[in-house]
Amino acid sequence: MIRPALPVLASLAFAAGLMGASPSFAADGAQLFNLQCKTCHGAKSTPMGPTLAGVAGADIAGRDDYAYSAGLKAKSGTWTDAALDAYLAKPMAFAPGTRMMVAVPNAENRAAIVTYLKTLK
Mind listing the domains of the chain with CATH numbers? Predict the structure, then answer.
């Protein structure tokens, strides 16, 4: 079940590093991912978007099988929970010039998607 917006709980989940996130929370993230992300982000990178397998903890714009936008290439660092959250919340604010136009405005839905992304290997 997709949960309604609960910004305080979502913030606490991120502050705790999503430690101990329930399997159902990852399942919610999988459902959201399939509805909102899978069209562009499949099992393999395509011109539409990179695969997100292994994205959690990886270098931003670090895959060698995808041509990233200048906006993402200009970012340094790794895809931490906070970076993934910020990018999903407002892609253009996080990386001006990014080609990703889809945002996830609901904080709890973002937290569920990030939890799910961490299961992708």
Answer: 7-12+21-117 (1.10.760.10)
